[in-house]
Design a protein that fits this description.
GproteinA_insert; two-stranded antiparallel sheet; 12 strands; alpha/beta; binds magnesium ion; single chain; magnesium; Rossmann fold; 3 domains; binds guanosine-5'-triphosphate
Length: about 550
């Protein structure tokens, strides 16, 4: 309540007193002593202070109500379905400054992706009788491995230059450990030379294969400890940690997940630590105009990368190597092997990742990571809309962390990688990836807790699907229900749209809910950003309606 009238000048107060009963009631007694006057004025002052405080609180609370609407989106789907890539596209569109701030840090992930692709090639072409056979290959980073017609090692051709490749690429295999260490514990960067693990001192659970490269023994059932993700202190998220090894008194920062893919602990602040342009990395010397950058730091991984670049290119272009990879049905281009076709550019001393490089960089998610950004003010919400996007780990052991988010989410974007019909899960090579996605989809659409939640389905990796079908891979070979329909992209993609749509209709507990389906290739920025804008408007409109604000 505003009590400014208490401060009116005496004449005004007197004039008002004739008509204002409140003012009459508040008038001082006619025979007020000076002491009484002091007490009265003091009381009036206290009352005014209290009143002003209440006014301020009311104003704040009104502003708060107008300030922000929070919309929560959960990204769901199996591992490697494209959730984190979709999140990167959201950031690129709505938080470009944050995206740019992380750009340099992705350089290390790109190096790691390239180094691991090279190691997989070396493993695949190894002539050693006790080297990996196809079963081993299938249990490692299997998104790129197809599942039928296993060739035996016996029929596979050999690569005469194998020993030479291995010798010349040995520094890369050491660098792999350093990169994992760097990403897992960037604070330890200074000591990276000291903490670099020499052979024979690998973390428990990992070992060198006979060929001298790093290989990881099948994980024992991972100790799932309820840890807290940095960004979500109140939400439990599982993490898988390698037990302490004899090499260190500290717990290993390196985490490996089933399927042997590298996973960085969610608490690692690698994006912040490695994305910072330090004094050393500033593009120009302030006075001299001379270029200074990470490439002048002799410890930077770029030096090993660029020294090994000619051999990497030679290996990747070697027809015998290609033949051996084909025999082993290993298709690296579909996963972290993107960079194999651009070795010179990626290993250049001054390599600065482009948007496309960052989108393609693969780092498995563990736990649940929250990202927020605010959309500009609009007519409905004067304070703008805050979007919180939760990116979850999609591998099977990670899925138990999803449920706590179900009761408090406005929309789900489900990623179904439809190119994966001929692939198996990294965490369980007996399971076809598409079957797993369909099961997961059914579980999500039939979930009672989610019945009021908007569901948007991204039938993803359409670019890879198209390429795969054009190369002659037949869907009915892996999915007999497809029968003898044409094997072209339009028919196949439409078949998937109808199949996923029909499952939603059959299993949703809320028959009024519509499910929005998009064909996506989330590494393609132009196409994805158009879809993201329409998804954003759809979610916003739906939520405005449901909260009776429209
Ligand atoms: N060609 C192509 N590659 C894609 C597409 N979507 C994702 N990828 C790539 O597939 C890999 C896996 O994508 P992520 O976004 O990391 O997968 P995720 O669902 O977050 O996986 P987890 O973190 O393990 O749950 C990355 O290298 C992406 O660049 C796509 O539509 N086309
Ligand atoms: Mg991810």
């Amino acid at each position: 309540m505003d009590r400014r009238h208490l401060q009116l000048a005496p004449t005004t107060a007197r004039r008002r007193s004739l008509s204002d009963p409140l003012a009459v009631a508040l008038q001082p007694p006619p025979n007020e002593s000076p002491e009484q006057r002091i007490v009265r004025l003091q009381a009036e002052e206290d009352a005014k202070r209290r009143s002003d405080r209440i006014d301020r609180m009311l104003k704040e609370s009104h502003k708060e109500q107008q300030r922000k609407k929070v919309i929560k989106i959960l990204l769901l789907g199996q591992s490697e379905s494209g959730k984190s890539t979709t999140l990167k596209q959201f950031m690129l569109l709505h938080a470009p400054a944050a995206f740019n701030a992380e750009r340099l840090a992705w350089r290390f992930v790109i190096y790691l992706n390239l180094v691991r692709s090279i190691r997989r090639i070396l493993d695949a072409i190894s002539p050693e009788p006790d080297g990996e056979d196809i079963d081993d290959l299938e249990s490692t980073e299997t998104a790129s491995i197809i599942i039928s017609g296993r060739p035996s090692s016996a029929v596979a051709g050999s690569v005469p230059a194998y020993d030479s490749y291995r010798r010349r690429l040995a520094p890369l295999l050491d660098l792999e450990q350093r990169l994992i260490q760097l990403l897992s514990d960037p604070e330890d960067n200074e000591e990276q030379e000291a903490t670099h693990l020499p052979r024979g001192q690998l973390p428990q659970g990992s070992s060198y294969a006979s060929g001298g490269h790093v290989a990881v023994s099948p994980p024992t059932p991972p100790p799932l400890s309820a840890g807290l993700s940095t960004s979500m202190p109140s939400r439990p998220a599982p993490r898988i940690t390698i037990p302490r090894g004899p090499y260190s008194s500290q717990p290993s920062p390196v985490t490996l997940s089933p399927g042997h893919e590298v996973a960085i602990p969610p608490r690692s602040n690698w994006k912040k630590a490695l994305g910072v342009v330090t004094r050393n990395q500033s593009p120009k010397g302030a006075h001299t105009g001379e270029i200074h950058g990470w490439w002048e730091d002799p410890h930077d991984p770029v030096h090993v990368m660029s020294r090994c670049a000619p051999t990497m290119t030679e290996l990747w272009r070697d027809p015998k190597v290609r033949q051996r990879l084909a025999e082993r049905r290993l298709r690296l281009e579909e996963s972290s092997g993107f960079y194999l076709n651009e070795i010179d550019r990626v290993t250049a001393k001054m390599f600065f990742p482009t948007d496309a490089d960052v989108l393609k960089a693969r780092l498995k998610t563990t736990g649940v990571i929250e990202h927020s950004f605010t959309l500009a003010k609009n007519s409905e919400f004067r304070g703008g809309v805050e979007w919180k996007i939760y990116d979850v780990g999609g591998a099977r052991p990670q899925r138990q962390a999803w449920a706590p988010y179900f009761d408090d989410v406005n929309a789900i974007i489900f990623l179904a990688p439809i190119s994966s019909f001929d692939q198996v899960l990294a965490e369980d090579p007996r399971v076809n990836r598409l079957d797993d996605t369909l099961q997961l989809w059914q579980a999500v659409v039939s979930n009672q807790l989610l019945q009021k939640v908007n569901i948007i389905l991204f039938l993803n990796k359409c670019d890879l699907l198209k390429r795969k079908l054009e190369s002659g891979v037949r869907l009915n070979h892996y999915m007999t229900s497809y029968k003898d329909r044409p094997n072209d992209y339009d028919t196949v993609s439409n078949y998937f749209r109808l199949k996923f749509g029909a499952m939603h209709l059959a299993h949703t507990p809320n028959k009024a809910r519509e499910c929005y389906i998009h064909f996506t290739s989330v590494t393609d920025t132009r196409n994805t950003q158009t879809i993201i804008s329409s998804v954003r408007d759809f979610i916003l409109t739906g939520n405005l309606r449901s909260s009776s604000l429209m």
